[in-house]
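Hey, I was hoping to borrow your eyes for a little while. No rush at all, and the record is pasted right below:
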Amino acid sequence: MQELTHYINGAHVKGSSGRFADVFNPATGEIQAKVPLASAEEVAKAVEIAQNVQPEWAAVNPQRRARVMMKFVALLQRDMDKLAEALSREHGKTLPDAAGDVQRGLEVVEFCIGAPHHLKGEFTDSAGPGIDMYSMKQPLGVTAGITPFNFPAMIPMWMFAPAIVCGNAFILKPSERDPSVPLMLAELMEEAGLPKGVLQVVNGDKEAVDAILHHPVIQSVGFVGSTPIAEYIYGTGCANGKRVQCFGGAKNHMIVMPDADMDQAADALVGAGYGAAGERCMAISVAVPVGDETADRLIEKLVPRVEALKVGPYTSGNDVDYGPVVTAAAKANIERLVQTGIDQGAELVVDGRDFSLQGYEDGFFVGAHLFDRVTTDMDIYKTEIFGPVLSTVRAQSYEEAIGMAMNHEYGNGTAIFTRDGDTARDFANRINIGMVGVNVPIPVPLAYHTFGGWKKSMFGDLNQHGPDAFKFYTRTKTITSRWPSGIKEGGEFSIPVME
């Protein structure tokens, strides 16, 4: 069995804690590798190395740091198939979806090539008699990221690419469920010209997370995962004086108006609800048709599409719609929540409970489920299921529909499907959710905009990637400068003011 490693100071390093986690092949249920779980001492060693190398990296001018990112993009493109295959093998998502995972991270790296522009300060000459004033954007120092299993390529790149191009060192603690791709990314960054120790990968569990949160040298922490853990990391990190951004859970609603193109809406819901087996924080898990007639038409369109979904391992080819979920525990939790929906009175119009794939009976596959007549007091409505389960909640008016999305505790993403511009504009303006789609089911912003939810989906002041990333990973220093030129007056003892 393969024993994975940490990646410390430019080398693969075996774990020394004696603790390991199993890495499964989700399609077969077999353990394919074991990954070391770092101790606090191992985290501290990585931080010490990062602290030593970061000042020299920060002294490299932004244009040369950007050139490392340019080379990294080329290497990602070269190794796209290799990265996608490794990702699919540990996560279970299809090869096209895995390649998309890498590609969306790559696009953030492309944005980071513009670092020389984004790191420019401001300047005011003659702010006072012989006085100039200017600002600098300077790196924080050693930074860290704790990333989830569902996007093992994209989200690490969303964090480490802007952090590093700003002149920081970065400690990555990826999910222990699918750690191989993060290790591969660290290798590629060094092949691109990054000095050893600037990007290090430390695998681990809560012990490693707590070591990161309490280490006094680490200046910032990024996190993506569940809301309870996001709250814990945000509170602990802030209490220890760190800059922290945490992205939590979601329950994304898609409102379907009576005038919507119903075929377009149904296609969008199937892709957004069941793609990646529903293991996306931007997945649409709640459809909200307005009016019973709209709901009936939507369900009529959805049922054959959902029943026709092809579920299988990534090795079955590119026509597979989605693969297994990541672990047996995840599968059991989804099945439990489906049963609560039935017990609480929802109508299961597509029942995937008996799904079984010949030859892969021990894999973590979950059939597609479609619920109708779900109500807002049911567990399947309130809880993020993170599986191939779509709930339909019927609203009798647009106001009732928008109220559902606005009143839910999560505010990550939402969408509306309509042909009416007034309705779309009102929805976009009023909704208290961070990312909004108009006839777009998964409104993940492109790399040059920022990604972030509201309410209990996000803790912190700045979003991920785009311009906010350069703000998060730098501090602003403002300098007021005067060079005396024939000025011979004595000292001033009152606060100078502009006249």
Remarks:
- The chain has two domains: 2-248+457-479, 252-438.
- Residues 40-58 form the longest helix (19 residues).
